[in-house]
Write a structure and sequence with these properties.
Blueprint (H helix, E strand, L loop, with lengths): L5 H9 L2 E2 L2 E2 H14 L9 H6 L1 H11 L6 H5 L2 H8 L2 H6 L1 H4 L1 E2 L6 E2 L17 H7 L1
Antiparallel strand pairs: 1-2, 3-4
Protein name: Sulfotransferase
Family: Belongs to the sulfotransferase 1 family.
EC number: 2.8.2.-
Length: 133
Amino acid sequence: MKLFPLEKAFEMASQGVQGYGHFWVNMLGYWKASLEQPDKILFLKYEDLKEDVNFHFKRLADFLGCPFYVDEERREVIEERSKLCSFDNLKNLEVNKLSKLPVEKSKVAIVLGRGRCTYVRRFVSSTSIDGGF
């Protein structure tokens, strides 16, 4: 497999070109399949999750066959669990701040993003971002 510099890979991805075909064609296929087989394929969009995370958290639990009980909903268990899975919570866990690898015994900083697309600016130039999207 041929590796590309990050700028070139970003340019290709922003145009929808990837090693396994055009990104949007693949996504359209998954979306159509989710409409035809909603019990087999759950199509979640990042924007929808950001808008109402608790609704989609409940939807995901239902899809996985682990629905919340009415009593759990009353006790706000859905809200509690979705907060546990949030970027803010995960990035502040001690294990994700700094840990040691048991084999190499070297320190590794595990970085969790903020759940925002702006994080890419640390790695790709503004020109690529502004021109790519």
